[in-house]
Design brief:
The structure is a homohexamer of 238-residue chains. The first copy, chain A, is built from six helices and nine strands; from the N terminus they run ββββαααβαββαββα. Chain A has 238 residues and is an alpha+beta fold. Chain A has one domain: GHMP Kinase, N-terminal domain (Ribosomal Protein S5, domain 2). In chain A, α2 packs across α4. β9 of chain B pairs antiparallel with β9 of chain C, so a sheet runs across the interface. Chains A, B, C, D, E, F: This is Ribonuclease PH.
Chain lengths: 238, 238, 238, 238, 238, 238
């Protein structure tokens, strides 16, 4: 029995509010249950130095957590003077995931930065970030298309992510904080709407796992991402 | 004529949603028009080193702005590795303002940290932060009182803040971003519900000002803060 | 009775030694009683990136305190690897104050940096810094005029600053360290020789204050700044 | 055809020289072809703050690359003043992998730090690091057992890691730098000698992949790790 | 012919003003010609962690240069966020030199920090710092002796330093900035009043040197330090 | 009697393995007994900003020590976020020493960086670094000559370094760690194959020394460097 009473293959409520902030070219507030992340997409008409003059664009991500997004207050990374290894690992994953569905040549020499800021945390902040980032990116690109700054759509597919893990011996979908803290193995799966996998990260905690367990987790991830894909389309007005 | 069409002594809409986040002991989302700040109050049963063993508490504040809270994206302070001088100046002001209405001996050996994170900016983020911080502090202290961890209320008054400035020759209340960028003088006023002033910071930009202008701005600040005091009480359920 | 025996509206001895150091284009050692600050003005024929090509100049300031300027040794900011919030707040105030009396278009595409280093501290280091910075700036600009690198004087007025506060119930002028540590309210006032105010910063410490008290402090500040204006002119040879 | 002429399921030459340095309690130089990593295990009779007094130990890892381990010189992280996100991600993975095979209660209140320094890089530095770290840890623990400081062996299994990827449409084992730079998908697999998986990290680059491809990569990883397990035992004198 | 017109074995004017600042336990302003350094000695009744409980004291030094001590403004190390390699090298040398004349057991469990801040630079700032630091240390120790906090004098000798170099083929004493910039070899010599040498640092610049040249420089250094020893005694009232 | 049983004027075994790493333009592993340093020379076709467009090159050095190169593990400088004063002092010395034998005009507008990384430490890491750096530089320059990118040899002489000190009253050559920890005076001498001295750094530890002792140490240094010069030539294939 899961602490939340959910079935093993049941997602938490997914809510995606598009245009959640005023200034960004694209944005949304995404909730997976009590986990809430504000994602903004910012378009800049320049690319990082290593891409200058190559006729292609870039998509990157930054991630942060408000100090009291969590049960006990964490220290503010800006005050500590550096981003933790965990933060950097997560923002690298988000950026990679979104780049997997963006044709950089079609995007042209511009950069889109996806800022994912966790307002409230209850497990799955990185997967909610990736899932919300697609909506923010979609809205920002739609703006470029509407304004005629882009003529062809550089987005090649949807991307979504969800965590799955083995909780008290059972593979379960979309771990919340209590489950995450006690799972024997947990994984983050980044899937595309065309059926392919962009990233698998599955870590044993205490126990280890085998191929069968990995496939079980992946099967759950496909269930969860289907639901997220639908919510993304609705939020993006498609 | 103000760009927003407001009268010179007219505040923007003040909205304070209490308990805006789940984990913090006290919190609110405060809006002054399009400026939105999430404030959380976190209680920790320890004090900074300089106060240890002195039988008194501490109230402090931290301030941050999400990278895309503004018209164009600003760089993330955590990624740059340091807080700007502006950020530090603001969080020092917030902390000082809240300490002005808190009896540290009655609070006991605990620290309350007020995190003010700007979700969307349109001028006046520091004054909205101070005004919201009082609500978050009030709710956190109410929790301590309700749980019997405090027997006497350490909060001695309400504190609120508003900016005023001289815009196109006219003293106006609660500057929004357009006004703030073009004001010839602007000030931030931190006032107490008992009629006293906690802090005055009035800076000439381009033009300078005199005692009469300063009194004009203060008179407007009193009008604005009256309205904020009422909204605070309502949000705090008092 | 003030600890120093001064009358409430009495400044400490103001001494300004011009050309206190050999290499700087302008400099002075300024003393307000036992507070001593060395100020240098350095001219560079370049402006910060945000001003390039705009045909105007910039005036900025940096502030530091020698580790043993104070009663007990403070740690060296260079060794700690960052400037404190207090340092940044002060140097931003100094820069803003001096920019209030300088016509940036007349200055042309060059930057003048005012370095204010506290050799000995006894309260009022930021106000002495501002007051001395005007002399250093004046001397540096006079050099530019004498060399024909400037044809019109970009300095539009004198600027001086002084602290005032309420000490044991009485408004007093130019707080020294003992008074500053015990004042119930204290303010820093930056005034121009044309009668206008450039900046007011008045903070309640413990007690709070009202409009009347603020005006009392401002009245004292005008008395103090008159005396500083005279000393500045004499030091600058005018 | 692989650039190196290897068969798809062929590892590069694995060489593990135990006791490669004089001072460390355990160490080895491990080579996967031209990739060479020096790993040392350092025992300290103290644990990190979060574990103090809990009667258990800790295993952690740090990773670095000499500036000219690579084709072109990279800047020295110590000189830049921070470790890159990549470095932090890798050292977190190494630590997690080794903790998966160590019983912290049996280890007792001591910490073993595994320093993995890349002397020469040609792809697979993180997997060589993990594989070599097990040998260094094994030797250090053997020393504790020999000296009677430990009576029961805290190491519960062997751990090894290898990268696999899809190169020109074919799943291949143990990518070298040229393959790694051109692979359409690549993964790092951390396996235990008891048949379980400790960690799977598989990333699409350009192309994405499906369950079948993931299983193919895992099958290759099992082949590679079998060979590494044998080399580890030999190096550790078992 | 030296640019200053001095004879090869002629020092610049040495001026040491004792008690140059109010708060420090010992201090002086030392000038070697146009090079001026303010040195303060601060006594703290604690020692660094590595000495705790060992019954002995510590003498350490920090060095800084005001941004405009030099011909062109240098950036402020506190603003840059780190001390340069040059600064660290110099402050390590100063500390080592003063420790050479202090019996740490007689000093007892306290630390004396010598802050050497260059007010104006014209070559020889590190040697002036060492020479002035002895005076500040002497005055601080005299205070401890006078107050009965020390009963035996821990200072075992005088220490002084001077630079010498080969300028246009001739060995010269006490290089000023112009000579220093053009010397073919230059050295810093730290000598004791008992005739011994504490430190020799002689570097070839462009040309290299031999034993004879090194002895020539050392001979000049003895001449210079004799003069400094006399000035130190006079400044310290001995 | 020296702990190692060596005669006072006896070096430890010098072993220099050229081409110790694959990617660098020049490299060697140098051992002075148990001290082992990996040195690489990296050629870059650009110079630091202060040399741009001046038609000359630059030689610089960086130094690091692996965390467990020493008896007890030291913290990793990249993790601490800064290089220690000792590290900076050493790398400045290495760079200066190599520049003493390189004609920057003949080198042309390119930079050669010498990375010296201590794999195992037993005293004398900086002198082994300098001695090995010459070999790495020689091999890198030979490559430039062989490829026709240089037509004249910019290397004007050999440079080598060795430490000498007074151990139990006797001047001894090439201090190992035990001797270094107990020496009453120790020096590092950087000598050229043409008989000249590039750098002398001799520090008293506890005891001080005089001219005669300095000459004794220098005489030993000449003996040691002769042996190193021969080993360098052999390693460089000359």
């Amino acid at each position: 029995m899961r602490p939340s009473g959910r079935a093993p293959d049941q997602m938490r409520a997914i809510i995606i509010e598009p245009n959640a902030t005023r200034h960004a070219e694209g944005s949304c507030m995404i909730s997976f249950g009590d986990t809430r992340v504000l994602v903004t997409a910012s378009i800049e008409e320049r690319v990082p130095p290593f891409l200058r003059g190559k006729g292609q664009g870039w998509v990157t991500a930054e991630y942060g957590m408000l100090p009291r997004a969590t049960h006990t207050r964490g220290s503010r990374e800006a005050a500590k003077g550096k981003q933790s290894g965990r933060t950097q690992e997560i923002q690298r994953l988000i950026g990679r995931s979104l780049r997997a569905v963006c044709d950089m040549t079609l995007l042209g020499e511009r950069q889109i930065t996806l800022d994912c800021d966790v307002i409230q945390a209850d497990g799955g902040t990185r997967t909610a970030s990736i899932s919300g980032a697609w909506v923010a990116l979609r809205l920002a690109v739609d703006k470029l298309l509407a304004e005629g700054r882009l003529t062809a759509d550089p987005i090649t597919a949807q991307v979504a992510a969800v965590s799955c893990g083995i909780y008290e011996g059972t593979p379960v979908l979309d771990l919340d904080y209590i489950e995450d803290s006690n799972a024997h193995a947990d994984g983050n799966f980044v899937l595309l709407s065309n059926g392919n996998i962009a990233e698998t990260q599955a870590t044993a905690e205490g126990a280890t796992y085998d191929e069968a367990a990995l496939l079980d987790l992946l099967r759950l991830a496909r269930i969860g991402c289907s639901e997220i894909f639908a919510a993304q389309l609705k939020a993006a007005g498609r």
